[in-house]
Design brief:
Elements (H helix, E strand, L loop, with lengths): L8 E7 L5 H7 L4 H5 L3 E3 L13 E7 L2 E3 H13 E7 L1 H5 L11 H11 L17 E6 L9 E3 L6 H12 L15
Parallel strand pairs: 1-2, 1-3, 3-5, 5-7
Antiparallel strand pairs: 4-6
Length: 183
């Protein structure tokens, strides 16, 4: 089958409890995105504004799990994506959001919303529209099976490019020295 006749891979992305830096690294692929778009089709992603993940070949998820909505989105991705990839430090190990794990959640909320000196009469948000916070921030693999891990804060654009092009070529992704950063 020629390249032109090959079906395009369906790719979905989302950001959970993180900073969106991993999506910025995806965009930092720059003009290579045009080449990539000849071989992939985006499903749910901030680039398409599609709200739910449909059947996909690859799901790229940045951010850890800090609330009930994150858990629901992660389960939706796992059930709809053949390959699920934890992208970045927050997805791989909880990252910066997990720094609150050694604190009592109630005390943390009290400090941030009520006793912070700049707040005169603050209160902890309590609205049914807000997702229920978890006591701890979890990396993705503690909630669902993850097929690949792309570490970094964020992973460099070249690592994301290499990962995706390896998948497109039908190879097991392999990131050599220089493409994986733990800083």
């Amino acid at each position: 089958m020629s390249d032109a006749a090959k079906p395009r891979l369906r790719v979905a992305t989302t950001s959970l409890a993180g900073c969106f830096g991993c999506h910025m690294s995806l965009l930092d692929i720059d003009e290579r995105l045009f080449e990539l778009l000849e071989h992939i089709e985006f499903d749910r992603t901030p680039l398409t504004d599609i709200k739910h993940c449909g059947p996909c070949d690859v799901g790229l998820i940045e951010g850890g799990i800090c609330n009930a909505d994150n858990v629901d989105v992660l389960h939706e991705f796992r059930s709809n994506c053949k390959i699920l990839v934890a992208v970045g430090a927050c997805a791989v190990n909880g990252g910066l959001p997990a720094q609150r794990n050694h604190l009592d959640l109630g005390a943390c909320l009290q400090e941030v919303y009520v006793t912070e000196p700049s707040l005169e009469s603050g209160c902890i948000p309590n609205d049914p529209e807000l997702p229920l916070l978890l006591d701890k921030v979890h990396p993705l693999h503690e909630v669902v099976k993850i097929d690949y891990f792309l570490p970094g804060c964020p992973p460099p654009a070249d690592a994301i490019w290499k990962f995706l092009t390896d998948l497109l070529a039908g190879h097991t992704p392999h990131l050599g020295h220089g493409l994986i950063h733990y800083d």
